[in-house]
Each structure stands twice: as structure tokens, then as C-alpha cells.
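Researcher: I'd like a structural prediction for the single chain below. Treat it as a standalone chain; there are no partners to consider.
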Amino acid sequence: MTLTGAGSTTVGATYLWEQVLASPTDPDKVTLTGATTLSPTFVLPLYTYPMTNNPLTFRLTVTTVDGSKADTVLVTPQPDTVAVATAKWKVGDFRVTGGGSVVGATITVHKGSLAGPVLGRTTVTAGPPPVFSLRQTNAAAPATNPLTIWIESTVGGVSGPFTVTAG
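Model: Treating it as a single chain, here is the predicted structure.
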């Protein structure tokens, strides 16, 4: 992503872009490349919990011989839409199916909450509509029913809780 201060150009000015963080451990922190240029860049990372889909706030401070002025800009991530259609468990067999709006997104299935253990990963594939399917058998399947699951997509979508049926 590229930020631009094109509307703030002044001969002899210096520029400083900074991300305004919610806390020192903000999970949405990104690294700005060229933070002292008019148009710095950053990579919006693939989503992984505990990240959020909250807007990212950046501040541009322009300094001239007459002083400094600052303004902020918000960059709002646009997450995909994901949903679980079915989640079934029986001894030696665990299945999760659903849909997503972005083909190629990786879906991570968690037990209990987004902070819960990862049960598996799968990819959203093309089809009318885009779908995903995770099946684990034998020793790869959870030993007990996970009861509820949550899913997260690398494009930011989350869904849950979803009840896992037995049988």
C-alpha cells in the first residue's frame, strides 16, 4: 500500500509519516518504508489473530521554516466474508465445510475461540460459490469433539462460534 502526501508539497519541507498505535503492543502495527518521504509504503500483512480489522491510522507531519502541521489518514482493511456451513465430528473423522468470498484465501480452523488451538488449515477454492473443505481422519482428527469452532481467513474474515455436531 502507498500513502501519499501529494496535497502537502512545499519547497524545502520535510515529511514524517507515523502510524498511530492503540498501544505499544498493537497487533495491527505495520512497518513504513520511506517514512520521511512524501509517499511511504507498507505491506498489509495476511490476517492472523490477534490482529483486528480496525482501521489503521497514519499521521503526516509537514515541517517548514514557518512551523509544522499534521493531519491523519485512515486506511480501512476490507476483509473477506467467510462462513462455516457444517462442522461434524466422530471418532477418527472431523469435517468442516463452508464458503468464502476470496479464492485462494487460507482458512484456519480453531477450537473454541480464535485464540484456541489450531485444528487445521484449508484453502478457499473456486466453485459456484467459492468453498472450502477440511477433512481429517484417523490420528489427524481431534481425539474428542471440539464442541465449537471459529475460523479466520488470511484476508481478514472471521466467523464463529459454530457448533460441531457429533455423529
